[in-house]
Amino acid sequence: MADDVRDRLAGLDFAGITPAEFAGIVKGLSARQITEFATGELRSRVLGEIFGRMGEQFRPEAAGELRALIRWRITGESEVVYETVIADGRCTVTEGRSAADARLTLVMGDAAFLKLVSGNGNPVTMFLTRKIVAGGDLTLAAGLHRYFDIPAA
To answer: From the record, what ranges are coiled-coil (predicted)?
Structure first.
């Protein structure tokens, strides 16, 4: 079964999938299935597409005057780090860790990350059950979902 899921996902053109379609795909997967397919080139493609779209999903009107560097540490077969900078009504994303101090650092596994960004996971529950570990500005963490168009799963 894991090979079927992996083969089906590997054949997808993630650039052509809408956030709502992606949310539907993730909704149909268990955390175990996500962990099994989130390896190698497929994992890189999925994470790259998600972070590549964050700027498009950003809601500047909701962010107002917010200025923050958010560091995302996605654990799994290896740790991948992305940073989002929200400032001046824009959201920019870079891969890798900068020397700057993050206002908020979020650490989570692949399954928790995909559930979170696809609207399939409750961020408060995920934080309380330690599926997401947050360091820094917890008020920012609590309101982070307001700054992005996250599909309803």
So the answer is: none
Q: Which tokens go with 45? A: 């493609």
| pTM value surpassing 0.70 | yes
Query: Domain range spanning residue 119?
Result: 2-147
Rounded distance between C-alpha atoms, residue 7 and residue 26, angstroms: 15
In terms of C-beta density within 10 A (0-12 exposed, 13-18 middle, 19 or more buried), how is residue 83 classed? buried
Task: Confirm whether 78 is domain-assigned.
Answer: yes
- The phi, psi pair for 88, rounded to 5°, reads 55, 40
Query: Does residue 12 lie in a domain region?
Result: yes
Q: Which residues pair with 54 in a beta bridge?
A: none
Q: Say if residue 60's pLDDT is above 80.
A: yes
Torsion over CA: 8, 52, 107, 132 (sign): negative
Of 40, 37, 115, the C-alpha closest to 80 is 40
The answer to whether residue 152 is domain-embedded is: no
Q: What is the pLDDT of residues 118-133, one digit of tens each?
A: 999 999 899 999 999 9
